[in-house]
Amino acid sequence: MLALAALVVAFDQVTKTIVSGALGPGETVSLVLGAEIADVRNTGIAFGLFSDGQYLVLVVTIAALLLILAYFAHRASRPGLWIGVGLLIGGAVGNLVDRITADEVIDFIDPPLWPAFNGADIAIVVGIAVLVLVHRPRPEPAPVDTG
């Protein structure tokens, strides 16, 4: 789980560094279907919420990370849990590094009609999806007819 989280943080920070170094303010690179690569700065959380609450965002993020780690410690044997937790923690830490070092998060994937996001955000969303799948109710096996 920690190795996956570290890989996510490394990937996230490298991609943000590349984009920040390659693009100046307001510059974009067009991709497909109207999506762009752009250097977008976000002081809030998802969709720019709490953009004036940096301290609150830091406290809530750290508290959430501690809760997720505690949950994982008690359920570590659950198959697949490490993947979801690793992605979630890696994504959260990737964005937390930005918040601590620059007071903002670098987003660079900018699709039309949707706020810009980054690799850490993708890891968080995929991590949550994995956690939902890991915790879905499993159907009881059908009884075997021996007659």
List its traits.
147 residues; mainly alpha; 55% helix; 11% strand; globular
Question: What report would you give on this structure?
Answer:
The chain is mainly α. It has one domain (2-134). The protein has four helices and three strands; from the N terminus they run H-E-E-H-H-E-H. Strands 1-2-3 form a three-stranded antiparallel β-sheet. The mean pLDDT is 86.
Describe the secondary structure blueprint for this structure:
Layout (H helix, E strand, L loop, with lengths): L1 H21 L5 E3 L5 E7 L11 H22 L5 H22 L2 E6 L8 H16 L13
Antiparallel strand pairs: 1-2, 2-3
Helix pairs in contact: 1-3, 2-3, 3-4
Short synopsis of the structure:
With 147 residues, this protein is mainly alpha-helical. It has helices at residues 2-22, 54-75, 81-102, 119-134; strands at residues 28-30, 36-42, 105-110.
- Amino- and carboxy-terminal Cα gap: 46 Å
How many independent structural domains? 1
Order of helices and strands: HEEHHEH
Number of helices: 4
Strand content: 5-15%
Helicity level = 55-70%
Q: What is the count of β-strands? A: 3
User: Strand sequence of the main sheet, in spatial order?
Assistant: 1-2-3
Which class of secondary structure composition applies to the elements? Answer: mainly alpha
Mean model confidence by pLDDT: 86
Shape: globular
Radius of gyration: 19 Å
